[in-house]
């Protein structure tokens, strides 16, 4: 039975709050596997008048048996279409658009000579997943991240 996706009319409103995160990472070139476990908090982004969220992810990433603290910060801003999002890196560079109005979205992000293809799926109010396939001369990875509302 194919998955049923949960339409999200306003991605910023849906994402706001704290999420428990697990991410499985597989290097498709050599078979190495890693895992991230932590939290992502989407909080009001200062200075954008309620039309943006600061995405702060923190936790532990274990790769090849070595556990290390890991974190990243992104900015989620209101997109051009109502309910959509413009995702930026912390320094303001564009990362990708995000449209969850159908409960599912696919996007490409070229990075140097590699291509990141992202798939986002919303299952219900409290669960969603991102899947990034990264391919090119520098990387051959699959990253699957599950989010559960905290």
Automatic annotation (TrEMBL):
<protein>
    <recommendedName>
        <fullName>DUF6314 domain-containing protein</fullName>
    </recommendedName>
</protein>
<dbReference type="Pfam" id="PF19834">
    <property type="entry name" value="DUF6314"/>
</dbReference>
<dbReference type="InterPro" id="IPR045632">
    <property type="entry name" value="DUF6314"/>
</dbReference>
<feature type="domain" description="DUF6314">
    <location>
        <begin position="15"/>
        <end position="149"/>
    </location>
</feature>
């Amino acid at each position: 039975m194919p998955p049923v996706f949960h339409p999200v009319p306003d991605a910023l409103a849906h994402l706001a709050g704290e999420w428990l995160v697990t991410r499985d990472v597989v290097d498709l070139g050599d078979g190495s596997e890693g895992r991230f476990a932590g939290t992502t908090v989407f909080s009001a982004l200062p200075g954008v008048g309620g039309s943006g969220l600061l995405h702060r992810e923190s936790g532990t990433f274990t790769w090849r048996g070595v556990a290390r603290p890991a974190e990243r910060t992104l900015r989620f801003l209101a997109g051009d279409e109502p309910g959509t999002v413009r995702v930026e890196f912390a320094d303001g560079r564009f990362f990708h658009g995000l449209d969850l109005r159908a409960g599912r979205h696919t996007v490409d992000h070229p990075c140097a000579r590699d291509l990141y293809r992202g798939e986002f799926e919303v299952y219900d109010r409290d669960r969603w997943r991102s899947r990034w396939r990264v391919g090119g001369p520098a990387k051959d990875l699959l990253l699957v991240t599950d989010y559960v509302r905290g």
